[in-house]
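INFO  loader      accepted 1 record
INFO  loader      residues=108
INFO  predictor   begin
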Amino acid sequence: MLAGFEVTRTDDIPQQPVAEGIALTMLREGTGNSDLSAMVVEFAPGAEFGMETHEKPEVLYVLEGEFHDGERAHPAGTLITAKEGSVHWPASKIGCRVLVLYPNGATK
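INFO  predictor   done
INFO  writer      dumping tokens
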């Protein structure tokens, strides 16, 4: 392994259910206020998370399917950035897979 690099394979990490029809794979759990947190979140068709208020900035990239934020549907290939204090209602009518990054550390 090259010095300064960290590698995680998603095949080696079990999914964790977070709500009905929604599961996440935690790729990297940052600590404090500076370490990156990264996860892949999968929504089954029709799954809804409910209202989510961000305590920290979030970056979301739609890998597959279509992610809905409570106002609009975003297809695969869409990058969404959310500021601290922003609110959305994550859901997916057709199902989706998204990469979620918290650049400033742990999600809570």
